[in-house]
Amino acid sequence: MKQISRFSHFGELSDKDYFRIALSVDCVIFGFEDGELKVLVINCNIKEYRGKLSLLGDLVRPDEDLDSASYRILRERTGLGDVYLEQVQTFGAVDRHPAGRVITTTYFSLVNVRDVQLTLAENDLHWHPVNDIHDMAFDHLTILHACHERLREKVDDHPVVFNLLPKKFSLRELQCVYEAILNTRLDRRNFRKKFFMMDWLVDLDELEQDVPHRPGKLYRFNAAKFTRKPKALAR
Amino acid sequence: MKQISRFSHFGELSDKDYFRIALSVDCVIFGFEDGELKVLVINCNIKEYRGKLSLLGDLVRPDEDLDSASYRILRERTGLGDVYLEQVQTFGAVDRHPAGRVITTTYFSLVNVRDVQLTLAENDLHWHPVNDIHDMAFDHLTILHACHERLREKVDDHPVVFNLLPKKFSLRELQCVYEAILNTRLDRRNFRKKFFMMDWLVDLDELEQDVPHRPGKLYRFNAAKFTRKPKALAR
After folding, report:
1. How far is B21 from chain A (nearest CA, A)?
2. What is the pLDDT of residues B115-158, one digit of tens each?
3. Signal sequence: where (chains A, B) (predicted)?
4. Pseudo-torsion of CA B132, B135, B139, B145, nearest 10°?
5. Tell me, what's the ipTM?
6. Which residue segments constitute the domains of chain A, with CATH numbers given?
C-alpha cells in the first residue's frame, strides 16, 4: 500500500485506519404479483436481527466492481442475468452493521416474477408485499423506502415498468402495475389517454385468454419509440 | 471484529480480505458566474495525475458518516455551512485509485459564488467553466458528467437553481442559469410563462441597479410555494 497522506488532513490517523472498511451491495428486487408490488426478501439469520426480513445483499469481493457485485447477487438469487438494475444510494452510518464498518451501495431491480426461479430456498427467500413491510434488519427498511421512492419518480417519464410485466399484457394489467407502484387509484380514461400519447405500445391484435372479465386487447412495449421526454423548461 | 462469514459465499476469503477498503467523498460544487456554469476544482498533486484538475474530496474518517464528510469538505473548502447537497452515485471500479481500493461516494452542491471565500489557496482552488473541462484526474470527469446530468434532470421540476443565485435576481439572470445548466438557448416568452405557472417567484417591486441594459424587476424565490409536481400519470 502506498502512502496516501496526501488525502487526509488528520495527522493523527495513518493509512491503515482508513483502509478498514468493507463494502456490501444490497438489491431491492421488485416484482408485481396478485395486483401488488412485491420485493424479494429473506429472513435474516444473524444474531442481532434474527427472524427479521432482510434484503438480498453480499460483500463486494476485493476484485469486483460494484455493478458486477449487484448482477452477481441477482443472478445467484433469481437465476436472471439480463435484468434492469439501477444504483440508488449508498448508506454509510458508522454503526449500521454489527460486524464492523460496512458501507452498502443499494440498487433496485425490476423483474417479472414468472421468470424467477426461487430455487435457492435457504433463509425462506420469498416475494413479500411492499406495503406489508414495517420492520426489517439493519437499515434495510430505510433502503427499501429510498428505492421505492426512486421507482415512483422514475415511472413518470421512463418505461421501466415493462420489466415487471410479461411480454404481452393488457392495459388493465399495465394500469394495475402503476397503481401498485404509486399506491393510488388512477382514472382509467386519463391513464389510457396519457399512455397512448406516450406512444410506447404496440397493439398485437390479440385478446387476453382465460380471464374472469371481458378479454382486453394485448400489447407489447415498443422500446424503439422511447425517447427521453424533453424537459418542460426547454420545450 | 466479529465473524462475518455469514455474509460471504466465498470460503477462500477471510474477514480481513474484505475489511480493506477506504471510502472517500467527492463533491461537485457548482456555481454560476459570468453566464457560465462553473465547478470548484483544484490541481491534482499526486504523482500519477500531477497538473490535472481534480474535484474536492477527502477520505471519510472512521467515525464519520457519509453526509457529514461531504459537509465537512464543503465547509473546509468554501467556508459555507448551510448549503444544498445531494448524493448522486458511488464509483467503485477496482483500479480507480493508485493508493489501493478507494470507493468514492459523490455529491453535488449548488452555491452562490459570491458567498464563497476562496481563502484556501492551496492547489490553486478555483472556479472552472464546466464546458471547458475535457480531462481530469482519476475518474473525476465521469463523476462531473454524472453530477451535471443529475442537475439537468433535477432542474425540470425542482427549484434547486435558486441556490446558485443571490437572494434577489431578475428573470434574465434566472433564464441565464437555466441556459447554462441545460447548455441550450431558451425562448424568453415560453420560459417566463412556464416559470410564472410554477408560482415560485415573489415580485419584490424593485428594479435592478447599475446594469448595462434596461433594468429588470427583481424577484425572490418563494420556498413556501414549492410542492412536488404531481406525477403526470397520477394527474
Report:
1. 5
2. 887 765 667 889 999 999 999 999 999 999 999 999 999 998 88
3. none
4. 30
5. 0.89
6. 15-154 (3.90.79.10), 166-234 (1.10.10.10)
